[in-house]
Amino acid sequence: MRLVRHRYGTSIVAVFLLGFGLTKAAQGQDSPKQDLSTSAFEGQRIVNVAFDPPQQPLEGSELFEILPVKRGQNYTAADVRAAIERLYATGRYADIQVDASTVAGGVAVTFMTKNSWFVGKVSTSDDISDPPNAGQIVNASRLQLGDPFDAAQIPAAVENIRKLLVQNGYFAPKIEPQLQYDETYQQVNITFAIQTGKRARYEPPQISGDTSVLSQEVITQASHWRRFLLPGYHGITLNRTRKGIDSIRLKYENSNRLLATVVLNGIEPEEDNAKGKPEITVTPGPTVSITTPGTKISKRQLRENVPVFEEHTVDEDLLAEGRNNLRDYFQAQGYSDVEVKYRQPQVNHGATEIPYVIELGKRHSLAYIGISGNKYFDQKTIRERMFLLPKSFEFRRGRYSEAFVKRDISTIKDLYESNGFRDAAITSRLVDDYKGHTGDLAIFLNIDEGPQYLVAALEIKGAKKLDLTNTVKSLSSQAGQVFSEYNVAADRETIIREYGKNGFPGATFEWNSKPGPRPNTVNLEFTIDEGRQQFVRQVVTSGLEITRPGLVAKQIVDLNPGDPLSPAAMADTQRKLYDLGIFSQVDMAIQDPDGDEDSKYVMYNLQEARRYSITTGFGLQFARIGGSNAVTDLSDPGGAPGVTPRVSIAISRLNLFGSGQTVTVQGVLSTLQKRALLNYFVPKIFNLPKFDATFSILYDDTYDVRTFQSKREEATVKLTQHVSKPITIFYDFSYRQVGVSNLKINPLLLPQLAESVRVGIAEINLIQDRRDDPLDPHTGIYNTINVGLATKYFGSQTSFARILGRNATYYRLGEKLVLARETQIGLQPAFSIPANSEPGDPIPLAERFFGGGGNTQRGFPENQAGPRDTLTGFPLGGSALFFNNTELRFPLYGANINGVLFEDAGNIYSSLGSISFRVDQRNQEDFDYMVHAVGFGIRYRTPIGPLRLDLAYSINPPRYNGFPGNYAQLVQCSVAGTCQASLQSISHFQFFFSIGQAF
Question: Which CATH class, in words, describes the domain spanning 2-115?
Fold first, then answer.
């Protein structure tokens, strides 16, 4: 405000001088210099209006509209004064002076201006070790994009940054602000060049105060500033310092010193700023213990419910709040008659004890919730909004407390009021020993709905510049509709949003009502003050280093010069820029938002994300995972429990060539797999907003199904089409060479299975996802269909078609049960089969369907379903599949643990014609039948999806012939014809542990 008054003062001086004729000499060609009084100018015709400098921050049309001083009109000092005030109001000028001079035919007026400046891009050097990161440093400067700029702001910004760096262990930073003035857009780009040196490390703290309760050594250990198992101390960071002080305070609290204070006075630099010694003052305070004599409650619950622990002080309000919290806690545990009282603090030998006397009474269960008086809403609509719950398998004693009752009454009242029942009233009545059952509670809610108020008429005033015809049709407060303040609030948002979308940022909305012509009706009046309409002058971007400006320009399609200045369009553009995945921060602002001008610059300051990112992972696969890796052991083709460690790493290079494209190298290493993948991702390829492309090269060495080891070398081109939010289509073409080794069947009998094969295949995969939650769906559908073709015309050595479909649906049964089902069908017919091919399945071994396991059929170990080698029993895969899974999901315990009952049916089949639904296996060589499994699972809800443990019982697992020896013995006995098979079978019991639902 000081700056504004200074500017305005300059204008008053100019007008004052002008009024007394103390103006500069005229600059016209045909007039000598002279001093003229006001009367010499008043009423004269204005011949010319000019600006110095000629290039002005406002457009000519806007200046013409703003200025009351115009060529051809008569000169008045009042008009000049008004012109100066209006120019200042735009915010674009720091200083304005006016020069009037006599010329032939009248007077010439010249406005001599000095432009204002605004904050543009604020950045910092990149050689600072995090923390603090660049964003924190920029925020510390308190220089906001688009705000007016004054050089006087810089010293304060530097000091704020210095304090932040010192707090993070950089005790002697050198901060040099560099200002770059951009006259085109009147903005100042500010770069803070920072040299920090090495981060200082903590020294043992200097502790003053009373250390009789906790010694200096104990306090030092509690801070956790000393490194664990390593000599020396950690580097100083603001977050670590705060945690250390909090840990020391907690240490005192654990010693019943609830009123202890721990104050960090500062961190004193030492040894040439390489170390810092924290200076701490501790005041243990008296021993204060909060007890619950005669009642057991965990220390954690006591801390959560009694705010004395958090506030570190004792007063009546905190003790009373603790009493109420404890009462609600025990009522929620079923003690509805609990009484909680606190006694005055008792001091004994210097120790203060605050006892909460808790009389639990008998424990109850909420057996019944009765709702009466409701006519407009049914019971289900009301109950689904309530927090009270009757006892069930999930909540053994239900959920009841007085606080819950108040909350539900308020919720129900809000529901009725939002639907026009302004006089609705809800009362409650609690019944003990309901229906004679000791300990059972019932709560009855009686609803007095009252009359429903309707809108008799709606009048909208003030809508002049914007046509609201279509908007009015969408309002909730139409004549004949329900009247409620909730609807009016929603209508306000609708109208203000429409005005904002059309460039009226200052639009306001007021409403009033009066009784209508009939009882329980209301006449509504909406009054709109539209304000001035603003437009986009230009979009200005900053912060681009390697990103191509054209890439950013493609995202700014709804903010063209002359378009209405719409916050919604600005936010949508910001979202599109974030969606590119190459910017870590996108700041958005209107330059000089308070300036009184119609056209505004829209500013986007973009902070490019780190170009390289590395992610690593480690995991374990724990399940029945199949037979031994080594060909020296063929004795267990059906699998056995095992654990497989897994390590992964991914390195990404973002924004390659500044085009928004990404290159990623991924690697996976485990005892079952070695995998390397190179991906090149091109978003919005060919400038098509709904198409992305991925080019990838894959090397994979894996034991796919424990029957063989495959080495895959593959190149893939994938085009992704985002048709709509639920529908995505993938167009793939893959060309791969797959080698098979360590075959655990007799290669003399099936030599074609041991051969490498080259496959060229084109595929189309359509996905429709309408699930409410992809991680844990409760409603919706999920459909996929994959169609592929491998043919010699694509360079493939084998020809086959592939069709794989999946349909999953999810239904709510009542409030708590979910019925989920999934069906998968796959066909893979071969064609153009060579005449000299051997009998059997012509599909190469590595291209066949394999299934069974946690995501297909839980009656099998992973990939153990389907046809098997008749001599060794190892799975061979098939050319058709059918799986059907059904789950009943239900709450098991509390809010986070759910249970599942499931039934899986299906198998891998040797061919399309072999698909059968019979449940009996004819002999040890028959695998084309339907295997069924039932089981029970537990799901524990986590932020990344439910942890899943499934226990399955296979009702009719397959029997097969196995070979109890090694591969050399197999070859030897095969030649001699003396192989002796051993009868084996898949275990009836299977278990699976993973993250995510089965489907």
Answer: alpha beta
